[in-house]
Write a structure and sequence with these properties.
Layout lengths: L3 E5 L5 E5 L4 H8 L1 H6 E6 L2 E3 L11 E5 L6 H19 L4 E2 L4 E2 L2 E2 L3 E2 L6 H25 L19
Antiparallel strand pairs: 1-2, 3-4, 3-5, 6-9, 7-8
Helix pairs in contact: 3-4
């Protein structure tokens, strides 16, 4: 290890990782099952993206779907997955806003033509597939070295 930093874990132990390590690196160092289940990383009172670099001395906890703090992250990601599925099925649709809210999430779309309940069925079938195809490769890519200044594009690309 060229240059190392210490990251504090909830049990009080420290983990030594390469400078610039991310929350996902911490999860992988603890175990592959945790890395697979990881949704976000808690750093102090903040919930952060797993892909962001940590700093020397950060005290972290890996958040999974079982953690209440991860729910807004899951809702946000689910909204992006739905938007990607809509744009896949209706490439000319225009996407407005889609925030996570207290009881779930929503997205505003403008379709070139009205959609039907049959279309919603197609969307329902498309969404899980989109989540698997889009998010699984992203998780795998995070294990490779990448410039720390790179920020991945927002799911679904720029607003149209």
């Amino acid at each position: 290890m060229l240059s190392a930093m210490r990251i504090g874990l909830p049990d009080g132990t420290d983990l030594e990782l390469e400078n610039g390590a991310t929350g996902l690196d911490v999860a992988n160092a603890i175990g592959p099952r945790l890395a697979q289940a990881a949704v976000a990383v808690g750093v102090g009172d903040e919930v952060r993206d797993l892909r962001l670099p940590l700093a020397e001395g950060d005290r972290v906890r890996i958040l999974t779907a079982r953690d209440a703090e991860a729910l807004p992250v899951l809702r946000h990601s689910t909204a992006h997955v739905m938007a990607e599925a809509v744009l896949h099925l209706w490439p000319d649709a225009k996407v407005a806003i889609g925030p996570a809210i207290a009881d779930g999430f929503y997205y505003d779309f403008q379709f070139p033509e009205p959609i039907s309940s049959d279309d919603l069925g197609r969307l329902t079938l498309m969404t899980p597939r989109g989540a698997i195809n889009r998010l699984a490769p992203r998780r795998a890519r995070q294990r490779r070295a990448r410039p720390r200044s790179h920020r991945p594009p927002v799911a679904g690309g720029p607003r149209r």
